[in-house]
Design goal:
Largest sheet: 6 strands, parallel
Distance between the termini: 11 Å
Number of helices: 8
CATH architecture of the largest domain: 3-Layer(aba) Sandwich
CATH class of the largest domain: Alpha Beta
Strand content: 15-25%
Number of strands: 11
């Protein structure tokens, strides 16, 4: 489960009347709207859960559902990363950023990541970044310009928001894609359409809910995540496990920056 109670893995203990395709004992996962995953038992709509294959450890599944499905729709559907592309990932050592780097690298892209410290730079390299920019020490726009010989990148994946938004636009090549999927530094300032015109840029503010709105989309998204976990393409660092009864301690440690990687609560 993540810190907002939006993802969970568990064993089916009962199914409703007339339901097919689910049976007691199945391991299933859920990610999305807050349905209260800080619980020992839950009643969930059958069409909102997905099967977890035996090849994926349930604890790994619990730690990767939301971030992994976010990475899937971003690199496979929102903008389709292909061999030869150059992509820029902000917060490359963060939970979703790490998976974006791993997945884009596996798809054959050249990956540029931005991070805040040397320690995070080392992790980003491990996760498939070909070039890492420590944005606290150097200007990421000029570095991207150098790395791409002035051409720019096909796509920027920006979860930082206000502090990086304008620079991200400047890093794009003509007809490039600005994918703003988070705002950890605050909401970006409003963008006049004229700001996109000089390079005919695309701008989107996607949400996973709209990319997993049908049952088929949900199964395909989760299925790709689990397949890439099983094959080793995606790795997630589960560095902290707490009993569910210590959820408040997990939150305190998270807020005081005493944790790295994923945190999983275990009933």
């Amino acid at each position: 489960m993540d810190q907002k109670g939006m993802e969970v893995v568990g064993e089916v203990t009962a199914v409703g009347p007339g339901l097919t395709g689910r049976k007691v004992g199945d391991i299933v996962a859920y990610a999305g709207d807050r349905m209260g995953s800080y619980a020992e038992e839950q009643i969930l709509p059958a069409d909102k859960v997905v099967p977890v294959p035996p090849s994926v450890d349930p604890i790994i599944a619990a730690s990767i559902m939301l971030k992994g499905m976010t990475a899937q729709y971003l690199v496979r559907r929102c903008f389709k990363v292909e061999p030869g592309h150059t992509v820029l990932v902000h917060a490359a050592a963060g939970g979703t950023g790490s998976l974006l780097c791993q997945w884009a690298n596996a798809l054959g892209a050249t990956v540029i990541g931005t991070v805040s410290t040397k320690e995070k730079a080392a992790q980003a390299k491990e996760d498939g970044c070909h070039h890492v920019i420590i944005y606290t020490e150097e200007d990421f726009v000029s570095r991207v310009n150098e790395m791409t010989s002035g051409k720019g990148v096909e796509v920027v994946y920006d979860s930082v928001g206000k502090n990086t938004f304008e620079g991200s636009l400047a890093c794009l090549k003509p007809r490039g894609y600005m994918v703003s999927f988070g705002q950890s530094s605050g909401t970006p300032d409003p963008v006049p359409l004229s700001a996109l015109a000089p390079k005919s840029l695309f701008l989107t503010r996607p949400s996973m809910m709209q990319y997993t709105s049908t049952r088929d989309e949900l199964l395909e998204t989760a299925g790709e995540v689990f397949a890439n976990v099983a094959s080793g393409v995606l790795r997630v660092r589960v560095n902290h496990k707490y009993p569910l009864s210590e959820a408040s301690q997990a939150h305190a440690d998270l807020e005081n920056r005493r944790t790295t990687g994923s945190i999983v609560l275990i009933p």
